[in-house]
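Internal ticket - ligand job 397, pyridoxal-5'-phosphate:
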Amino acid sequence: MISIESVPDASGHFGPYGGMFVPETLMTALQELEREYRAAVADPAFQSELDGLLKNFCGRPTPLYFSERLTGKLGGAKIYLKREDLLHTGAHKINNAIGQILLARRMGKTRIIAETGAGQHGVATATAAARFGLECVIYMGAVDMERQALNVARMKFLGAKVVAVTAGQATLKEAINEAMRDWVTNVRTTHYILGSALGSHPYPMIVRDFHKVIGEETKRQILEREGRLPDQLVACVGGGSNAIGFFHAFLGDAAVRLTGVEAGGEGITRGRHAARFQGGKLGVLQGTKTWLLADDDGQIELTHSVSAGLDYAAIGPEHSYYRDQGRITYDFATDDEALAAFRTLAEVEGIIPALESAHAIAHVIKIAPSLPKESIVIANLSGRGDKDVQQVAEMLL
Ligand SMILES: *Cc1c(COP(=O)(O)O)cnc(C)c1O
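stdout (structure tokens):
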């Protein structure tokens, strides 16, 4: 039996994973953040302001939708979708951005920075900053800015400054490096809203906690609808925030199988995918010890995914921990499988999923046909596909 409240420990570790691998100059800020976070969650006024914003600004609770036609088409398990795609700004990211903006305000910070891959975290952060009238700077890889032009425009309309990062692969990893550089320089006035369950302690804990609402709602909703727990939950895993938020309320329910789906890219060949548990190794990247894709000299390898939000060399430390425990299993879906799932969900259900979420749907399409008709599978639909329409149109139409 896993004690779900035992991680992270006081030093920020999930078993051998996690920790605080950061420059000395950031230690004080991270300790201040943890202190303020612990005070905030114990403060009923904080909780009620957060609950009010999640409800009235973000649109929680999100529906649990019975995917009737996909279920019929696949001919096996009953498939439900948790509709995080219906949240304000179009993905689960807003849960964390709103939570962290309230922490920033408590700490008296006047300037917000963030990194973004697909642009969804940048949009969520720019939205939260606009809502509270705070200055906002978003770091984004130049390659991602090109494939996610719509989100770049959204951030600009929301009043954020978007800084193009051209170093290295010019994607998410380099954007995080730049955001950390900014934070070291401006730490007194600035809060860094990290966008996934990644990085140095206390971020993996804080981001997870702000997303736990996804699984808590799901549990209540499925018990209401079906009178029992589901057999399986499926979520895509980039850094791992939507997955850990979705899974967390079910970790203690041993009969519920939990599966995280990584980006298999063009297949499991070095440099052509972002599936850290397929050929990855233990290492330290951007503040945390976890599984990552590196070569024999420890150099971070190139990654690839059709979906910018899953295109990152490391996985959140809590995922590495539950994988060791055997509590969460991990699989992958390739670009082609995700693109096929993107089309299928659009045609069969009238829902265009984010390419990230399409990886979870691809896994459901693989497993559902051979499962008994009375079994229940719930996929987390982490976001909507509007941001991806132009990219996919260029590939498929
Ligand atoms: C950012 C993003 C992801 C990947 O991030 P996680 O932290 O792994 O959840 C998945 N889906 C959508 C829609 C996203 O925007």
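Auto-summary: The pocket of pyridoxal-5'-phosphate is lined by residues 91, 93, 118, 120-121, 196, 236-243, 309-310, 354, 356-357, 382-383 (CB under 6 Å). The mean pLDDT is 96.
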